[in-house]
């Protein structure tokens, strides 16, 4: 086992079963998104080709999370899960424990504790930090207060050639007097 882990140091991790290793999962991931690498279960003992292997995920909040493509078939001591997706969410600050079931006779079970945290938006910068970064990248202030202060400082010194909206003309006074006349 030590040799296999040494050959694949960033790829495989021990489970609680001495007979199985599995792929390292990202610590935090977005729900229903394809994993960056295919999830694999490696058997250290003799497991016949064609043996079905399933994966389940759960924790104390979500005891059986919804997964897609959660079964694979063992071939050359490796079960490769094509496009394993975590649809169910683990909850804020919580991670899933994976239960790997290998349907040999007798059935063998391995668990991968605190394997992955799954949330709606996946890994991201904290809101406070992200807001500061956005402010630094904007070349102009876009806050309403800043714009209002600028508007107050810059006032036109000459009257507008078009006239003001509030100025009354022959037409506007004619229509306003008609509007005030009661209909009989």
UniProtKB/TrEMBL annotation:
Pfam families: Runt. Residues 132-151 have a biased composition (Basic and acidic residues). InterPro entries: AML1_Runt, p53-like_TF_DNA-bd_sf, p53/RUNT-type_TF_DNA-bd_sf, Runt_dom. The keyword Transcription applies. Residues 166-177 have a biased composition (Low complexity). GO terms for molecular function: ATP binding; DNA-binding transcription factor activity, RNA polymerase II-specific; RNA polymerase II cis-regulatory region sequence-specific DNA binding. One of its GO terms (cellular component) is nucleus. The keyword Metal-binding does not apply. PANTHER family: RUNT RELATED (PTHR11950), RUNT-RELATED TRANSCRIPTION FACTOR 3 (PTHR11950:SF43). This is Runt-related transcription factor 3.
């Amino acid at each position: 086992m030590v040799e296999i882990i040494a050959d694949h140091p960033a790829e495989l991790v021990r489970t609680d079963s001495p007979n199985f290793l599995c792929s390292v999962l990202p610590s935090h991931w977005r729900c229903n998104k394809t994993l960056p690498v295919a999830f694999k279960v490696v058997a250290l003992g003799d497991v016949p080709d064609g043996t079905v292997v399933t994966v389940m995920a759960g924790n104390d909040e979500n005891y059986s999370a919804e997964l897609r493509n959660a079964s694979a078939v063992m071939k050359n001591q490796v079960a490769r899960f094509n496009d394993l997706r975590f649809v169910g969410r683990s909850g804020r600050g919580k991670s899933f424990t994976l239960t790997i079931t290998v349907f040999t006779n007798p059935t063998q079970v391995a668990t991968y504790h605190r394997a992955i945290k799954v949330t709606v938006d996946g890994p991201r910068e904290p809101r406070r930090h992200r807001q500061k970064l956005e402010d630094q990248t904007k070349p102009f202030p876009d806050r309403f207060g800043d714009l209002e202060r600028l508007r107050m400082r810059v006032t036109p010194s000459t009257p507008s050639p078009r006239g003001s909206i509030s100025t009354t003309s022959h037409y506007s006074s004619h229509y306003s007097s008609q509007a005030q006349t009661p209909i009989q």
